[in-house]
Amino acid sequence: MSAHLMQFSELLADLAVKDIKVWVEGDRLRCNAPAGALTAELRGQLQDRKGEIIAFLNMATAAATQQPAIIPLQSRGTRTPIYAVPGHVGAPFTFSDLSKHLGGDQPFYALQPTGYDGQSEPMDRVEDIAEDFARQIVEYQPTGPYIIAGYCSGAPTAFELAKILGRRGAEVPCIALFGPLHPTTYQELPRWLYFSARETAEALLREMAKLPTFSARLRYFGSRVRERFRALGSKQPVATDPVLASRARLKSTALAAFQRYDPTPYTGRVCIFLPNKAWLRSGAGPRRWLRVVPHAEFYFGPEGCHAASMLEDPEAPAIAELYRQAKI
Fold first, then answer.
1. CB–CB of 319/178 below 8 Å?
2. Domain named Thioesterase TesA-like: which ranges (predicted)?
3. Which CATH number fits domain 69-189+241-325: 3.40.225.10, 3.40.50.1450, 3.40.50.1820, 3.90.1150.10?
């Protein structure tokens, strides 16, 4: 999960733990909190992220009256609807910025896996997750066509989902995979170590680049190194927050399902959108999808675009433009 989404998820979890209720009335965000629970810091975060929270609560309300897996990010439009599988943390709002930049005529639905709500148990097989999504999509929209999308480690589930729908006679014009990880990324230890090290180094360099001077960057680098050594030498606390514990269980279960999945050949159209050309050598194994989809089309984002944030602003517009170029 990117830092942006992680912070938003932590904010919502913090509100839940402190029994702070937030709801939407029209276009206004309302709040009710026990005495002393709403600190100045939390009040500031609620104000700063008001738009995100309202959008999220509206999505949750819509989902509660429909299929729980289907989160409408954009329900209007005449183009073929997109149903998108997020990465292993299951966050449906991963696609919020991308859906916005695809325009008001593009229906876009994020798919929320069981276990993300903290009430249900996560599934431990890609095939079962895809089957559950397929059932709810057909209940929500009985006939196709459907565009199936997947991001990061959600790519295998999207791939399997499209195959299930296709076997049942539905029209799936395209599978759109954004920064997809191939299952061998985590199956092969050297590949996983290289991928993890590269992702960590790139994230560190991005943060350092934001600092104004070389000395500030050097201090930041030193602080991160010290933090890492302290973490290695300390015992990790057990998560007591039920929401965070539920998300951690979903993440570990989803990664185990991802590792076990073995994709089989597919004859339909597949478009693979990578953050940049260098990502072909990232260890994520994007070319390995050619083993089962030799006709897959590759599209590359601009240099400097990063997999962790490719679906978020300010990088989302470039990825939306790639999608339009594919003429899906």
1. yes
2. 83-280
3. 3.40.50.1820
